[in-house]
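Board notes (copied after class):
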Amino acid sequence: MHRTEVLKLLRAHAARPLDAHEAAMTADTIRFVEAHPDCFLRSQLSGHLTGSAWIVDAKRTRTLLTHHHQLDKWLQLGGHADGDPDLRAVALREAREESGLTRLRLEADEPFDVDRHLIPERKGVPAHYHYDLRFMIEADPAEPLQISSESKDLAWVEVARVPELNREESMARMVRKTLAKS
C-alpha cells in the first residue's frame, strides 16, 4: 500500500455516513496525505500517519485498552507507521507488540474510524498531529496478555464502560459505532 492506496481507503471512508466531526477529520487527513509524501514518517514534524487497533471480542461487547505510559490515558492500541504504508499491518503489528496477543483477526480491510488528534510537545519533539486510521481487530480475551514498556496496564473493558476511563469524543465515537454493530 502506497500513498495512493491510503488515499483510496480514506476516500472510501469519507463516502460512508460519518458524523460531522469524523467527516471533517477524514477530509483533513486526505489533504494532509496529498500534501506530504513523507506522511508515513515521524520526521514529518507537523504530523504523520498512525495505525490503531480497536481490539474487540467476538461478541463486540468488550475492547482491549492500554493505559498509555507517556500520555497517562486509557486508549486503543496503536502506533507510528515508521515508513510502512500498510496501515492495516501497522495496526496489527502494534496490537501484537503492545499486548502479546497472537491470534488477531482484522474485521475488515477498511478503517473502522479515522481520527486526527494533537500530540503535545515532549522531549524536544514539537506538538504535532497523529492522523490515525483505526482498524477493528477481533481477539480472544482468554489469550494471555503481556504489558509492554509503552503501557502502565492492559485491560479488557466492557465497550459501554469505556467512557468511564476516557471521556474523549474519539473514544466515545468508537464506542457508539461498536454498539451500533452489535
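Comment from the instructor: Strands lie at 47-56, 62-68, 74-75, 77-80, 105-106, 113-119, 128-138, 151-158. The chain is about 30% helix and 30% strand.
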